[in-house]
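Look at one such:
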Amino acid sequence: MYNYIIFDIDGTILDTEFAILSSLQKLVLEELNKKFSFEELRFALGIPGEVALNKLGITNLFQSNEKWNRYLKDYLNHVKVFDDIKDTLVKLSEIGILAGIVTSKTKAEYISDFIPFGLADYFKLVVCADDTERHKPNADPILKFIELSGIDKSKTIYIGDTKYDMECASSAGIDFALALWGAKSSIGINANYILKNPKQILELI
């Protein structure tokens, strides 16, 4: 069915939720003197950091995002590759299915937060937040990926864990599969497929 699989990173390849929300919680308490619960901050998962900070009413966006990234490093021991992701990527590579990434991480964040996990060689193309002016849920990141790769939309699917991912894929005119291992719930997400385990990706091809 599909010969090109595009992945999100946070909540899809890497289990980063605790690290992202804990470091954001710390930053917001420092910047706004307000304590937010994980649930109140969950909207920040899946969009660029500066966009999330702007929604929280933080004005010094660049400096605060830099600080958030520094705080994130304090929680890196909580970040891990989801079970069965690497095995799935190996299998996709072995059978000649191309894989790529569309992420809300900047290039610098991709290099510092993702490269160390040793999975980069499995992906033929990566589109980061600074590759487009508009970001998820806008279609531009996936459209940029399609433009650069020349792939056939009808043979391509995007795998992510948030409503932003679903809206990005839908607006770009490609199918979407929900990574339930990261999303935890499918409520409010209209996915073409709901996957409970990364190995189910192999059933889509």
